[in-house]
Design goal:
Largest interface: A-B, 78 and 90 residues
Oligomer: heterodimer
Mean pLDDT of chain A: 90
Helix content of chain A: over 70%
Largest sheet of chain A: none
Shape of chain B: extended
Distance between the termini of chain B: 56 Å
Helix content of chain B: over 70%
Strand content of chain A: under 5%
Mean pLDDT of chain B: 86
Number of strands of chain A: 0
Structural class of chain B: mainly alpha
Shape of chain A: elongated
Radius of gyration of chain A: 17 Å
Number of strands of chain B: 0
Chain lengths: ~100, ~190
């Protein structure tokens, strides 16, 4: 039988992949894809808990998370394009203007 | 038994796709694996009986957001030579191992945990009696959560305007010295 634990563990593993991608990749596009992975892991946890607790509020929360994720992707990719125009690269090694 | 087999095959494919997303060198390969991962997340939602969320996942994520990603990859047309990363340092390897270890600890803790939250009333039978998953969510969205729903539409409007403003061409050119300085800085690092 599949219980809530299985879904939460699956969400943890997917979230870990996303965190490692953000920490170790240097390509801005792949960093943004890792952020999407983390949001999806959170959504799995939300829906799993919603079903296990017989309460639909979790699924409505997923709806709002997806809205915010779409906004985040649009603005983030616009920033990637702006950065590429200005510096000619999207590798984070070269973007160190803000470093003190 | 069939339930267990289906869940484990979806879960292992999802973990495989997630790992591939973060390990591929080419962003296009990552994007393709991300499409696979998003569809598998939709499959997990459908498996949980969340029909509405599964449909929205396919439409919004696998449809809209992935098209956005692929468009940007196409637009940037990055030279593969520039995608090479320097080899991992000892400090980075230590961080990698520590992160993986802490996530293993978290997974084990989650797996051994006990559910103590109060259980609600909308069981699967109750939802089916009230007209199905989508009907129940729709009612809650337009009654209890109508104010956040309207705010979400405003947020989307803001995001549209913001992304157009951020990505549009800079009319005001940098003065010669500033532009040279910036280009030199990037060039030096290369």
């Amino acid at each position: 039988m599949i219980s809530l634990h299985h879904y939460l563990t699956l969400a943890t593993v997917v979230f870990a992949c996303g965190v490692l991608g953000v920490l170790f990749r240097r390509n801005l596009l792949i960093i943004m894809m890792s952020v999407e992975l983390m949001l999806n892991a959170a959504n799995i946890a939300f829906v799993g808990a919603s079903t296990a607790l017989a309460n639909l509020d979790g699924q409505i929360m997923v709806f709002f998370v997806m809205t915010v994720a779409a906004c985040e992707a649009a603005v983030g990719l616009a920033m990637v394009i702006a950065i590429y125009r200005r510096y000619g690269t999207i590798m984070t090694d070269f973007l160190r203007t803000l470093r003190g | 038994m069939a339930e267990v087999i289906v869940f484990y095959s979806i879960a292992s494919l999802l973990v495989f796709c997630s790992i591939m997303v973060v390990t591929r060198k080419n962003p296009i390969a990552s994007a393709i694996y991300l499409v696979g991962a998003l569809f598998l997340v939709a499959a997990v939602f459908a498996f949980l009986g969340a029909d509405f969320v599964a449909a929205i996942q396919v439409l919004v994520y696998a449809g809209a957001i992935m098209v956005l990603f692929l468009f940007v990859i196409m637009l940037l047309n990055i030279d593969p030579e520039l995608l090479k990363s320097p080899p991992m340092t000892a400090g980075e390897a230590a961080v990698l191992i520590l992160t993986i270890l802490s996530f293993i600890v978290i997974s084990v803790t989650v797996f051994k945990g006990q559910l103590v939250a109060p259980v609600g009333e909308l069981t699967t039978q109750e939802i089916a009696k009230n007209g199905g998953n989508t009907a129940v969510i729709g009612l809650a969205l337009f009654m209890k959560y109508v104010w956040p729903f309207e705010l979400a539409s405003f947020l989307i409007l803001l995001a549209i305007v913001a992304s157009v403003v951020i990505a549009k061409k800079d009319k005001k050119k940098l003065t010669g010295d500033q532009a040279d300085a910036e280009r030199n800085m990037v060039g030096d690092l290369r």
